[in-house]
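STRUCTURE:
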């Protein structure tokens, strides 16, 4: 058989594994967010030490590189004041007449199920800089949002 038709290994035909994409812009985190990143790295270190499977090890190391980069680029934000919405704030507001309370966090600690949204989300970008009693346009509607109260999120520090 001609050498041109032989494969040296099946690895040549596998899909390439790319690094986990990192969001553009600054990596702003609360103190809670920094602790979460550190805990994730510690967990990955333990898993890497205990893993013998090559494929699993590659995946774990890929995740470790991502979280290591997130740790090295983390910029901790100060605990916000009570008078203005910022990263690390818990804010209560009305949106189209419905009352909601959310925490504004860094990107890696956002969790919609826990009412934590990233500072880069459109709703958070609209709220940041507002004070209680102020209104803002949102989603093409004027005065759709009214901030009722704000202060540091309970676990932001």
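SEQUENCE:
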């Amino acid at each position: 058989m001609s050498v041109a038709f032989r494969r040296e290994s099946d690895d040549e035909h596998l899909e390439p594994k790319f690094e986990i994409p990192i969001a553009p812009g600054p990596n702003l985190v609360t103190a809670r967010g920094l602790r979460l990143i550190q805990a994730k790295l510690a967990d990955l270190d333990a898993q890497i030490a205990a893993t013998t499977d090559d494929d699993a090890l590659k995946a774990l190391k890929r995740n470790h590189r991502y979280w290591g980069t997130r740790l090295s680029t983390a910029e901790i934000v100060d605990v916000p004041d009570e008078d203005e919405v910022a990263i690390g704030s818990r804010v209560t507001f009305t949106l189209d007449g419905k009352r909601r309370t959310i925490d504004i966090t860094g990107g890696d600690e956002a969790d919609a199920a826990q009412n934590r949204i990233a500072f880069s989300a459109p709703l958070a970008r609209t709220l940041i800089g507002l004070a209680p009693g102020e209104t803002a346009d949102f989603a093409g509607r004027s005065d759709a949002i009214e901030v009722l109260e704000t202060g540091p999120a309970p676990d932001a520090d």
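REMARK: The mean pLDDT is 89.
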